[in-house]
Amino acid sequence: MSAGTETESATPITEARAGPAQRPLLAQLGRLKNPAIAALFPVAVLVFWHFATYGRKYSLIPPPSDVAIQLYDMAFGGIYDDAYSQTLLTHLLASLSRVYGGFAMACAVALPLGILIGRVPFVRQLLDPTFQVLRPVPVTAWLP
Description:
The chain is mainly alpha-helical. Helix 5 crosses helix 6.
């Protein structure tokens, strides 16, 4: 009697496992709908960029095909063999070191200073007027 119940309970499990593996083609295409919609805007921007710049001899913005060729040459070389060939990794590491180095310095200075301002009333009274005067300055004004 127990053998019959085990076989009966095992049959629906194997059918349930076989069901999702045999999905119809429309259900699988339905899963690609969201990524296709997400890729629609970047593709439209590339198409617009291409038709707005291609064929113009002296354009301020190069067409995407020229940008792709230059990017390939910077990454792998072999097209122009100039001073910038195969230097993408060098430039990428320099930029990343600047970004993360600046972030590390900001954390090293700003976090302890913020804790001091929040904990010690004298430090707050000392620094708060200066911060209040500097607050209205826009972020882009600090760049130059």
